[in-house]
From TrEMBL:
Signal peptide: none annotated. InterPro entries: Polyketide_cyclase/dehydratase, START-like_dom_sf. This is Polyketide cyclase. It comes from Mycobacterium dioxanotrophicus.
């Protein structure tokens, strides 16, 4: 069963190269994301590169790994979380005043059964956790906007 598409969008009053520099520096992901505590890229930013990550929600920590799936400079960055097969992406579009950023979580084949079981057991169930993820996306984009507009 496919999981719903989760998405958030924001307009930033900054040039696309400024916004891209913030988003493509994955070591800064903990500055943006309420859940991410570490995102360490292994090697150069390119498709196939791997990251090692640590996430936190309330008192629960969990490690993950990701694989970079798409890098189109100043347009799109995407990575697949290996544990649950979800794909997270940031897409940038120029606007009259700056840059529009859309953050998306795709799970077209649904998250893995083990991931859903863990979320149901430890994180209050999939629907409430997905609501929390969208809230986190909006918080992340607001933090990126604040940094880009400084």
């Amino acid at each position: 069963m496919a999981a719903p598409l989760l998405q958030a969008q924001i307009d930033i009053d900054a040039p696309i190269d400024t916004v891209w520099a913030l988003i493509s520096d994955l070591s800064r992901m903990p500055e943006w994301s309420p859940q991410c505590r570490v995102m360490k890229l292994r090697g150069p930013l390119r498709p196939g590169a791997r990251t090692v990550n640590l996430n936190k929600r309330k008192f629960t920590y969990w490690p993950t790994t990701s694989t970079i799936t798409e890098v189109i400079p100043q347009q799109k960055l995407a990575f697949k979380v290996d544990l649950n097969n979800t794909i997270w992406s940031y897409e940038l579009q120029p606007t009259e005043w700056g840059t529009r950023v859309t953050e998306t979580r795709h799970a077209e084949n649904g998250a893995t059964a083990i991931s859903n079981a863990l979320v149901n057991a430890f994180m209050g169930g999939v629907p409430s956790f997905e609501d929390e993820l969208v809230d986190g996306m909006n918080a992340s984009l607001a933090r990126i906007k604040a940094a880009a507009e400084r």
